[in-house]
Design goal:
heterodimer; A: 2 domains; B: mainly alpha; MetI-like fold; about 75% helix; about 0% strand; flat
Chain lengths: ~290, ~300
């Protein structure tokens, strides 16, 4: 047998080590962040913290949860994620069901939808449109423009196509309408597909930061990701030319770490569910027979 | 396909009476797409105008292709195009090769528990936002950050300014992008490998093939159609160097090597008010990308029978 040969055994040892190191590299930065967030300011600025808190304390979290801007932004993020996911799911599943059927004009409609994946008006025209529609500085500027997504549409449409036609035909004979079949047969049978696109949409909304920067004129209206972008990234980028000691004095890395970590908690919380479905979803979206 | 359509064409009247719920169910999506996707496309006329916000699209002066000519007159703009091409091409190439290798290597791990744990960990970074990752990177890659502490403490050399040195910015961006996305890129390959008929391996074993020969003559050829699809489809991203990442990592010190089309559009238009010019640069990018995508889909269809829908 091949895996008994000596050469293969040596390879196997190195292979295991390589993959374990690579896998750890994907997770250790987050652990580092978590350790920093629970360490004292002095320990963090002195570079003493690696993957375990030094001088354990929760000051950074107390300060963060008492930061009104942070909490306000978190609330906006929660609202946009809930609203955005509900609207997105409604829009995409309805069209996805219809387009999984054969009817006249279906291909033309499909091209209208898919074309949005291939070409876009770009930054300035989108910005001007949102301004003209009067959506600037409202939560709708964060929710509506991205509600439809062609990729998710194709994904759920392919999922609907795997449901046996016989079920639908039987329901038709019993006098059910398209709407009844959609709500009572297709949706319940497509829970994994719905979970996949639902989680994709949720994560997308939670992580989305640029639209907040673009469409909100004051930082109080920023969602959490945009808030973090200004606190963590913009400040650092401006300070990049400062000497290390100056930069350290200006920033409180333990608070930054706590803020970043809190913002990733929802992602980490849904990740186990996400992982359960997205592998299947990706494969279904990419490989079509 | 075309013949089938002709023979089955039902008159619109009958079709609508029979299928009206299906048309109705498409309406919400259609409305969203027409407003928020096709609406901005109408705004592309600004690319041919000396657009002034107070005059609007109807009142602004038409200047033909002047905005496009300026793309090649401004050094900053041409540099951004060059940077975009370099960063995007390298990202695409390593983004194709590394996931293939990692998928094959991961497949050699027999302990299914370990294999699953590794998969769980390497898919995770894909779901973190670039803001989060940039926040971590700015900290650990800073002059007194963790990586530089190791470099100065263990090797005694000067600290390396990863995000402030024009020579190091591109490698930093490429490696961190690879780190974020290689796991996700592996998924389709792992699925392909899992779908290979085990009898191929058994037959090759009887013929005396060792593991390396099996990978070369069974695994890789089985992955080839998928590799072709992924490679051709990524052609459309050749002008997409990753706005989210660059915007959160770059700074004026590295504009010479790190400024890309999208970040340049943002600065020149939204920050400096050159709306028409910014739109023109954006249209230049998305126009070329569209042509490349159409070509790549045709190639993928021809060689691997891939269809978008």
């Amino acid at each position: 047998m091949y895996h008994k040969s000596q050469g293969y055994r040596i390879f196997s040892v190195f292979n295991h080590i390589l993959l374990i190191v690579v896998a750890l590299s994907c997770f250790l930065p987050l652990l580092h962040l978590l350790a920093q967030s629970f360490s004292s300011k002095a320990a963090v600025n002195g570079g003493l913290v690696s993957f375990w808190p030094v001088e354990f304390n929760t000051d950074a979290y107390v300060k963060t949860f008492n930061n009104r801007n942070f909490m306000g932004s978190m609330w906006i993020s929660i609202m946009r994620t809930v609203l955005g996911t509900l609207i997105g799911m409604f829009v995409i599943t309805t069209a996805g069901y219809a387009l999984s059927k054969d009817f006249r004009g279906r291909n033309a409609l499909m091209w209208i939808f898919v074309f949005t994946m291939l070409f876009s008006g770009g930054l300035i025209p989108s910005y001007i449109l949102i301004s003209e529609l009067g959506l600037k500085d409202t939560i709708w500027a964060l929710v509506l423009p991205g509600a439809f997504g062609a990729y998710n549409l194709i994904l759920i449409m392919n999922f609907f196509k795997t449901i046996p036609k016989a079920l639908e035909e039987a329901a038709f004979i019993d006098g059910a309408s398209f709407f009844v079949i959609f709500t009572w047969i297709y949706l319940p049978l497509s829970l994994p597909g719905l979970a996949t696109i639902g989680l994709f949409i949720m994560v997308g909304h939670w992580n989305s930061w640029f639209d907040g920067l673009l469409y909100m004129s004051t930082t109080e209206k920023y969602p959490l990701a945009s808030f973090l972008q200004t606190v963590v990234v913009q400040n650092s980028a401006q300070n990049v030319a400062l000497s290390p000691s100056e930069a350290a004095a200006l920033s409180e890395q333990s608070i930054k770490a706590a803020q970043i970590f809190i913002s990733t908690v929802p992602i980490i919380a849904v990740y186990p569910f996400l992982q359960k479905y997205f592998v299947k979803g990706i494969v279904l979206g990419a490989v079509k027979e | 396909m075309r013949e089938r359509k002709k023979t089955h064409k039902t008159p619109w009247k009958i079709e609508i009476r029979k299928h009206w719920p299906l048309y109705l169910l498409c309406l919400p999506s259609l409305a969203f797409v027409l407003i928020f996707s096709y609406g901005p496309m109408a705004g592309l006329v600004m690319a041919f105008q000396d657009y002034k916000p107070w005059l609007g699209m109807t009142g602004s002066r038409w200047i033909g292709l002047e905005n496009f000519e300026r793309i090649f007159q401004y050094d900053e703009a041409t540099q951004a195009i060059i940077n975009t091409l370099i960063i995007a091409v390298i990202k695409i190439v390593v983004g194709i090769i590394v996931p293939i290798i990692m998928a094959i290597l991961l497949n050699e791990i027999r302990l299914s528990g370990l294999k699953k744990s590794i998969q769980t960990l390497v898919y995770l970074p894909h779901f973190l936002s670039w803001v989060t990752i940039a926040g971590i990177m700015i900290d650990i890659l800073g002059l007194d950050g963790g990586i530089n502490r190791i470099i100065t403490g263990w090797f005694g050399s000067e600290p390396i300014f990863f995000l402030g040195d024009p020579n190091l910015f591109r490698p930093t961006v490429i490696v961190s992008d690879l780190w974020k996305n290689f796991g996700f890129g592996m998924i389709v390959y792992l699925a392909t490998i899992a779908g290979i008929d085990p009898s191929f391996y058994e037959a090759s074993e009887i013929d005396g093939a060792n593991r390396w020969q099996q990978i070369r003559h069974v695994t890789l050829p089985s992955m080839l159609p998928m590799i072709i699809v992924i490679a051709t489809l990524s052609l459309g991203g050749i002008l997409d160097a990753g706005f989210d990442q660059i915007f959160n990592l770059y700074n004026p010190l590295v504009y010479s090597t790190g400024d890309i089309i999208d970040t340049y559009v943002y600065r020149s238009s939204l920050l400096n008010g050159q709306y028409g010019f910014g739109t023109a640069v954006g249209l230049f990018k998305s126009g070329i990308s569209l042509i490349l995508i159409v070509i790549s889909y045709r190639i993928a269809y021809k060689f691997a029978n891939y269809k978008i829908f």
